[in-house]
Amino acid sequence: MSSTASHSSSAVSGRQARWQPHNDSRRERIVLAAVELIEQAPAGVEVPIIQIAEYAGLAKSVVYRQFAGRDELDRRIRSEIADRFVADIEDALDIAEGSIHEILVRTIGGVVTWIQDHPRLHEFLRTGPSETDPDIDAMSALIATIAGSTRALVTGLAGVVGVTDEASADTMTFAIVSMTEATVTRWANDPEPALTRDQLIEEVASYAWHVVDGVARRHGLNLDPEQQLTEIITQLVAGN
């Protein structure tokens, strides 16, 4: 490559690097504006790009300079929504406080609250893939992410007492997470649900507990769902 061509290429790279923070900021403004508008939109109504641009205080042409098209923008929006969902649920999964039953109720309650509070965002998650994995729908990717976080927790605790059956942990956590999301979604979409919110949470928590208890017993562990989880871990370590 000639020195002139090399200098030109370096200049272009330099300009791109200088503009990157500006472009990142604009992309974020567009995505956040879209999320707010989707929250406000009636069920099943698509928010047009021109409305997103106006809400973000930008020209429509700017949106198309930042995103290749509507599909790319929608994938980025779904990723933003999924990140918010995961952050809320992971806070509820804190094992430092509560019994197994309390942690299950707290986490399932978090799922119910999020879906109730953000029905349009939850609906939008189900409309296609996310930015992180364009080959699968965003909701499936979200369930896999939450199950992965839960699995890491479960396998970490299991390792403390010498249980290393990661296959069981993987199947168990995915079953619980997918069952919870599907059951809560069905309840939230029912205009006349048979159960109250609190009844639903307790019911789903009991299903989740029976799955956990069944897997634990298969490995010779008898867990008390009402005992503080940190106490259970301490006792298991002492007896290991």
According to CATH, the fold-level topology of the largest domain is Tetracycline Repressor, domain 2
Please, what is the CATH homologous superfamily of the largest domain? Answer: Tetracycline Repressor, domain 2
How helix-rich are the residues, as a percent range?
over 70%
Q: Low-confidence runs (pLDDT<50, min 5 residues)? A: none
Measured by DSSP, the beta-strand proportion falls in: under 5%
Number of strands: 0
Largest sheet: none
What structural category arises from helix and sheet content? mainly alpha
Spell out the helices and strands N to C: HHHHHHHHHH
Radius of gyration, rounded? 23 Å
> Overall mean pLDDT score?
84
Provide the number of structural domains: 2
Query: If helices are DSSP runs of H or I spanning 4 or more residues, what is the number of helices?
Result: 10
List the quaternary state of the chains: single chain
Fold and architecture overview:
This protein is elongated. The N and C termini lie far apart (66 Å). The longest helix has 38 residues, at 3-40. The chain folds into two domains: 1-67; 78-239, Tetracycline Repressor, domain 2 (Orthogonal Bundle), CATH 1.10.357.10. It has helices at residues 3-40, 49-56, 60-66, 70-92, 100-117, 119-125, 138-160, 166-189, 197-218, 229-239. The model has no long low-confidence stretch (mean pLDDT 84). With 240 residues, the protein is mostly helical.
